[in-house]
Amino acid sequence: MSLKNILENFSYYRRDAEAGGHHEYEHRFAMAIDLDICTGCNACSTACYAENNLPVVGKERFEAGQAMHWLRVERYWDEIEGDYPEQGAKMIPMMCQQCGAATCEPVCPVAATYHTPDGLNAQVYNRCIGSRYCSNNCPFRVRYFNFWSYYEDSWPEPLRMQLNPDLSVRDKGVMEKCTFCIQRIRNAKDKSQREERPLVDGDIITACAQACPTDAIVFGDTMDPESRVSKAWAKHQIHRGPVTAKKQKADEEIRGYRVFDELNVDPSVMYLERVRDTEV
Amino acid sequence: MSNHRLLAMFKDFDDAFEVVDKIKGKALSSVEIDDVTMMSPIEHPDIDEKLGDRPSNIAYFTLMGAIFGVTFGFFFLAAAQASFLVQPQGGKPVIALPTNFVLMYEMLIFFAVWTTVITFLGMSGLLSRRGTLYSEKLTVDEIGLVVEVSDGDLESVKSFFKENRALEIREEKV
Amino acid sequence: MSVKVNRRKFLKMLGWGGAGTALAGCDMPTTVTLEEGKEEVVSYLMPEEYVIPGIGVWYASTCTQCEAGCGLHGRVREGRVLKLEGSPDSPINHGNTCMMGQSGVQSHYNPDRITAPMMRKGGNLQAISWEDAMAELSKRVGPSSGVDGKRVGMVTGTISGHQSVLVSELLGQLGSKNHYVHEQINTSVWRTVCRDMLGDETPKLNFDKARVVLSFGADFMGVWGSPVHNMGEYAKFRKGAERGTLVQIEPKMTMTGANADLWLPANPGTEGALALGIANFIIDRGWNLVDVPARIRGTLKQYDLVTVEKVTGIEAEKIKRIASLLSERSPSLVLAGASVENQENGYDSVAAIMLLNLIMGNVGNTIGATAKFAEASMQAKQGGTKDLLLLAKALSDKKLDVLLTYNTNPVFTAPDVLQVQAGLANVGFKVAFSMFPDETTLSADLVLPIHSGMEDWGTHVAAYQPEGAVMGFQQPLMEPIHKDTRGFGDIMLSLLKLRGSDFAKFDDYYSYIQTSLLNMPSSIVTSTGSKEETWNGILQNGIVKTKGTTTPLVPKLVDVRYKPAANNSEYPMHLVPSARLGMWDGRHANIPWIQEAPDQIAKVVWGSWAELHPKKAAELGVKNGDYVRVTSASGSVETQVYVHKGIHPDAIAVPVGQGHEEYGRYAKGRGVNPLKILNPIMEKRTGELATYATRVKVTSVHKTGRLVKMGGSEVQVGRKFVRTISSSVFQRTEKEV
Amino acid sequence: MSQVIQDKVIDEKLEWSRINADVIASMQSPRRAYWVALAVCIAMLFCAVAAEIYQYKYGMGSAGLNNPHMWDMYIATFVFWIGMSHAGTLLSAILHIIHAQWRKPIYRFAEAMTTFSLMTAGIFPMIHLGRVWNLYWVLPYVSDRGIWPNFRSPLVWDAFAISTYLSSSALFLFIGMIPDMAILRDHTTGWRKKFYGILCLGWRGDDRQWRNFRRTYMLLACFLIPLAISVHSIVSSDFAMSIMPGWHITTFPPYFVAGALYSGCAAIMTLFVALRYFFRMEEYMTLNIMEKTCKLTFAIAMVWTYLNLIEFAATWYGHNIYDKELLIDKATGPYAAVFWTMIFCGMVVPFTLCFQKLRRHMPSMLVVSILLNLGMYVERWMIVAPTLAMSHQPHQWDVLWGTVIQWAIVFGSFGWFGLLFLIFVKLFPCVSMYEVKELCFHLKHEIEEEEHEKQHAAKAKAGATAGGGASPAGNPGLEGA
Question: Is residue C250 a contact partner of residue C257, using CB atoms and an 8 Å limit?
Fold first, then answer.
């Protein structure tokens, strides 16, 4: 009886992210990306195309801004007065940050995007009606919409033989984004279940982290204190949850930060600041 | 018992009102003031005054509709949210009151408006057939007065009409 | 002839050779597993043995997308290869891959692959059967053809392993010495200098030991040497006890430059002078760790700071800082790459740069010897552009009657002035072994479609061997997609058999490789039991690890006769035909993922562009997206401009890779090819084509368009996406904890 | 002349039968201009339908939308039409409650405009959906899979608000039309008689019906005012509830409501001029009514201007760098021309309404009202597009001007609205006959009373001199037809 349900669990259902949320998380997958050793080579992005059946949209549609790179390597120039960018360029792999308090989630009219017990910001393609509100409300702009039907154009025979059967090819009208390779998470969970053991660090490795030639991307579960990513977060004094005074970094010069942390969205990707030898 | 229904057409409200006054004043045995109905192309604010207290209780139903809307709204939304636990989103609680208030407000109005309209259809006697006495001039500029009388008072009512410049008198048996 | 491995046998081998990582599909009930012996639940759906729906199996192989020879694991499901990942066992890539490796599957599944042999009939290439094709081949190069072996040539890309042996055998059998090894992206000059000054062509570069890397145009993360390996080493260099400092000097910012702590553009072609200036300053201060003979000291004296500042355009203060950096943070590693090598004075510049390594005592420290694969005939034959020039000459001199091409595309990469395309008309019979209809292939008289890297057997010995000397083993990850393609090795074998040889005993290339490997000395292939077990071990690892032979480095100073390039008033700009990781020399232009992946610096996709410094752009009155004409003495190209500060104001960079006239739907007619307008300037000492020496003039054509690139704003506009801290802070907060 | 006479919005001596006849005539025998207008509207609609079919088939990419610009003119147009819908119902209801008699000749077409612009607006969220065939998932129906829409989403609020508003304002329009339906039943022939006979629900005009009618109408008016305000607040929540700079603004709900009233009034002015001209309704849609409408529009324009400036000021002083940069970009960046058009049309043009000569000059008012509408349209676009173009993430900055498909659908929406409106004016009276009669009746009373008072005063004065003598209180009655 749902009335009974409401009355009995009301205070539980009223808990928000600041109060620990209603979720009982099983895992909270997260990343740590070291921008000092990220070279901006694009291997992660291409690996993502290969793993996640991302369509190649072609020049005209790329020009129209309809590219589907779930993981894009952004390049920024320094705003400098001098003649040359002597500190090189700034590279950052930008993908869905799997925010703990994601702004995209509450605006979806049909609950097609929601938070999984794994701490992922999941997108249910079948449920999506394409209102695109989630993308509008994403400060990172990392949600990609299927503006066209790409299947015929992007995968002419026999290119489509490469498609990963572990996940679908999305048709027009559906929003999609980085899933932290949810099919790999699923497979690893199945495997650990079969082997009757808990998931351990390293069981799951996302396509981007796997490909990275400098191992700049570390993926893991922040609920597991022994995981590499947990240690990296702890070392760089970044804590889960929205930013509160208590949780701020003790030392501002520690490298860890989350992009747009000031928006209180609790991103699951920690970046480590780029380092430049300013003495040369 | 009244067994005749009379319709008289008048040129203006004042003529009709005089007839009403006369009926009220003469205390005819078979004619109650409640048996008098006035039909008009427009609404005259004095009609109620002349015809006496005839209450309209639509507002009570509206209130009930509104209360139902807001209560139903709350429980409907909360029940839906509490049974759809996949919804936890963006760090928001499962039952998100601020958003539910918005929708409760809309549902309040929705139910209030519909109850009002449905009650109106019932209370105003629309959609029900009541007699054939009618003149198309009623929708132009003439005022009609319908009186239900018994045989005894028939003539005196008719004479009131005539005295007050009735343009036309129609009659039917009830 | 047919491939003698039947399907059953083939799949059996796969079954044994698999790395054995079985994964359940996410949609499959977890109870249906191999482990629990419940395969029969899905047996009805099983089309063949070892093809279990929903189970992905990983097989080891070797990447053929460039010459670095990275080890691969390929995920195979339902008989299809789906995803490539780096093999953790490979000492070259340590489990990682670059974007080219990742897109190997799109090479393999490319919709524009040639699916049947073709022969030129009446001017057009027409599909024929393999029987006819082999008959034609026998007719033209067989024993009865009467072909003059000396007039037979073969042009390949860098080639190694058993393929190389077969090519050598074939040419030897014919009596030909004309093996042209052409590789557009190469380190030939660097290799020559290393040979002359260190005694080893491909010395081991210990980034992890270096505290400073000073790189003159060496895009070691991108297109210089073994990029994936170098990037891994770079990470160690950055993450070491002390964070290493990277200084990059190059006319156009490469990916490596983008990651440098200090990036400076010296006037193009004067990097040698800069190196000498730094050396002079170091010796002047007595900072050098190795003594320098007076003879060289005398040469260096001319390169005082004032002169060098004038010549190179780099402030004296910066030169001093670089010099003191090399001294304070020894050991260092000084590298030279394409923009230095491929100048007219390339050899001397690289020698001047190598001098820094020598005087700072880097040799034997950050630069070490590499092991060489014990079987010399299988070592990599590394190519360059010298052979392209030789080929062009042979063609125009009508010295070739038969030309075989494999794994290279000289018609695309050769400058127009070399007239390779026209020269090919002088060759009576041209055979192309190719997967794709590229320019060279479509100029051939007989086109033989070959297997992809994922369908064929092969062995690869990388030129740069960081740990030991390994042989990458390439095995098919799936059955050939197209029924009418054949393995390159198989065709070579059947050509060899035409004249009857030792190879007659091998049924096919597979059995040849197998026999050959199993009969190798135990120093190369260590037996792990029976032959079958050994063989399975090779298949499973995808790599044959050997110690190799190592000879210690012998540092030797050479005279540096450095002379900066002359100015040219008619063509004031330097053309930088830049290359990038991914597109490489244009061979990957037919891969959609590569086309759609933005250039690492300009972030342009699906086309060509020209990079200009804002100063120059203002002078020309052009902005992003405007078209300019780049004219050299040998021709001109027209493309859109991308303006940024990461380029020398006197240089214009036009990336290579685009401008294909053929090469399938994704590459054809897209962008421009800057190689076409190169002047035929040779590097003086090595005879390589000096690709960076061409001078051009740039004019606006008063046409504008939208530059198709990723990214709206070029700067962060005050946002903190990429934050930067100084390495001193980093040292305090992270290294000393 | 007295104030009442000077301000009178209609000639009180209009014969009631003529009112009937005039209005019924306006509904019959369309002139050629009507057919031309109808053809134009159908052609415009056809453009939109063709564009929509294309877009449905090939995907939203054909509208030129892209990663930063997930929404664009569709949503701007949606807000525009929703805004336009406000004038009719809200003004009608407010003016009804405060007994502003001058609303009576014009409220009917204004309410029709409300309903039709809502029907137009409601189409846009559908057009803009990537998978419109799953639209019904937004509705809270009981699904056997236990799936519900997400009640946190402002888009679901939109669905609730728009359906509530559409049904309520349609009911309001319909209830207000019942007495007129009876008039039409009595004075038309053929199919119309049957048609109106059904629609009038047996209206006879007896006292019970009038009494309940008055009460119902008042109740509905009372509910419609907060409803209308909530609807546009909810529409503003689509933006204000987000995190985006330029959207997440506290003043958005009142700003949107003011903007809605503003564009609604401007639309009323446009239709007023058009109907007055085409249906020769000069006697009903008098210049005095226009003047009052103009004054009201001016007042609302000033409210809107104020709220707009407040928004700028709050952004300017707020030191939220994203918001502030966006504001500067709006005024100086690629959208500057559009932004200044909005400022000019929305803030400067309404000052023409201060001049009586202009207010009484219909061609000028047509131009002014169209300019105001243009200003309000670009205002909506300036809300939607620049935020998407220049939000938090500079890497995704992009300027979008839409494709032919998008423009065609936006253009066609005017055809759809026009078509509905044109059908309406021929099926239903665009002037409320019974209320015009009431207006005349009351006006006449007022004038008579005033004259009576005047006479009384004169007599009192005369009586004071002549020694008095009360005159018998005359019962003026109703002269009628």
Answer: yes
CB-based contacts of A7, cutoff 8 Å, min separation 6:
none
The answer as to whether A279 is a domain residue is no
C-alpha to C-alpha distance for C1 and C326, rounded to whole angstroms: 61
A185 membership: H or E segment, kind and range: helix A182-194
Domain shared by B41 and B64, yes or no? no
Inter-helix orientation angle D287-318/D252-278, to 10°: 160
Look up the domain containing B20 and give its range.
Answer: 4-55+130-173
Secondary structure (3-state) at A147: coil
> pLDDT value at position A219?
94
Half-sphere exposure of D200 (CA within 13 A, CB side): 22
Q: Could you tell me the two tokens for C638?
A: 């027209």
Confidence of residue A22 (pLDDT cuts 50, 70, 90): low
Whether the Cβ atoms of residue C227 and residue C464 lie closer than 8 Å to each other: no
**For the CA atoms of C55, C58, C64, C69, what is the dihedral angle to 10 degrees?**
160
Taking only the tens place, the pLDDT of each residue in C96-140 is: 999 999 999 999 999 999 999 999 998 899 999 999 999 999 988
Strand, helix or coil at C384? strand
Task: Kindly list the strands in the beta sheet with C402-406, ordered across the sheet, starting from the edge strand earlier in the chain.
Answer: C124-127, C118-121, C446-449, C429-434, C402-406, C152-156, C178-181
Whether residue D10 lies inside any domain: the answer is no
* Fold assignment, C188-369: Dimethylsulfoxide Reductase; domain 2 (3.40.228)
Kindly determine whether residue A88 and residue C261, on different chains, have CB atoms separated by under 8 Å: yes
Is there an interface between B and C (3+ Cβ pairs < 8 A)? no
Chains contacting D (3+ CB pairs below 8 angstroms): A, B, C
Phi, psi of C557 (to 5 degrees): -80, 140
Contact C103 A273 (CB under 8 A): no
The last residue of a domain, from among B123, B139, B156: B123
Q: What is the per-residue pLDDT for C1?
A: 37
Average pLDDT, integer, range A251-280: 88
Q: pLDDT tens digit string along D377-423?
A: 999 999 999 999 988 888 989 888 888 999 999 999 999 999 999 99
Of C387, C488, C389, nearest to C432 by C-alpha is C488
Count: domains in chain B: 2
Taking 80 as the threshold, does the pLDDT of residue C44 lie above it?
A: no
Taking phi first (over 0 means left), then psi (-120 to 50 degrees means alpha), and beta for anything else, what does residue C78 get?
left
Q: Do A277 and C262 touch (CB under 8 A)?
A: yes
| ipTM, 2 dp | 0.88
- pLDDT tens figures, C517-562: 888 888 787 777 888 888 888 888 888 888 888 888 888 877 777 7
E-strand spans in C475-618?
A: 543-546, 549-550, 573-576, 610-612
Q: How far apart are CA C624 and CA C601, in angstroms?
A: 14
Under DSSP, the state recorded for B40 is -
Pairing of strands A274-276, A29-34: unpaired
Residue A154 belongs to a domain with what CATH number? 3.30.70.20
**C and D: number of Cβ contacts within 8 A:** 21
| Cβ–Cβ under 8 Å, residues A216 and A73 | no
Does residue C713 contact residue D397 with C-beta atoms inside 8 Å?
Answer: yes
Please count the structural domains in chain D. Answer: 1
Asked if C668 and C661 touch (Cβ cutoff 8 Å), the reply is yes
**Residue-wise burial string across D332-365, b where 16 or more C-beta atoms lie within 10 A, e elsewhere:** ebbbeebbebbbebbbebbebbeeeeebeebeeb
In the structure encoding, which two tokens stand for residue B153, read together?
Answer: 């008072």
Reported confidence tier of residue C263, pLDDT bands at 50, 70, 90: very high
* Interface with chain A: mutation pick from D124, D393, D399, D406, highest number of A CBs within 10 Å: D393
Residue C331, preceding bond cis, omega within 30 degrees? yes
